[in-house]
Amino acid sequence: MDIYSEIILDHYQNQHHVGELVNHTVRVVERNPLCGDNIQLDLVIKNGVVNDLAFIGDGCAISQAAMSLLTDEIKGKKVSTLKKMLPANVYDLLHVTISSGRVKCALLGFTALKNALKMVKKK
After folding, report:
1. What is the spatial distance between Cα 114 and Cα 83, in angstroms, rounded to a whole number?
2. Could you tell me which of 67, 59, 66 has the C-alpha nearest to residue 18?
3. Contact yes or no for 117/82 (Cβ under 8 A)
4. Which helix (H) or strand (E) holds 86?
5. Interval 2-46: pLDDT, tens
């Protein structure tokens, strides 16, 4: 197993920012029916910044590790900065090549984030 696979395994087994936030500004739920992955993302946005966040998820190692890594990356960042994120940013966090069959798994958390940011704009 190479070092990059170890990163995914570590974040899958020891996920960061796991839980639910009662005082969330926005909550989104995303599902990947092809793989059975589920993610609920809670964000607390104050003054245009992700002040706090949490997620609960269920699914494959890639989807859950990607969400864990993504939460580390986005906490404390400005919403305006996060709106500019691209899928490539998630791939960079994972440090592995994602096959076409696993793209939805890897980007499930990213999709949840993008949809959450759209909801913040509407509020």
Report:
1. 7
2. 67
3. yes
4. none
5. 555 888 999 999 999 999 999 999 999 999 988 899 999 999 999
Rounded Cα–Cα distance for residues 15 and 85 (Å): 22
State which amino acid sits at residue 21. Answer: L
Q: Give me the phi and psi of 17, to 5 degrees please.
A: 60, 40
Q: How many CB atoms within 10 Å of residue 42?
A: 21
Verdict on whether the full-model pTM lies above 0.85: yes
Q: What would the 3-class secondary structure string for 6-64 be?
A: HHHHHHHHCCCCECCCCCCCEEEEEEECCCCEEEEEEEEEECCEEEEEEEEEECCHHHH
**93 near 58, Cβ under 8 Å?**
no
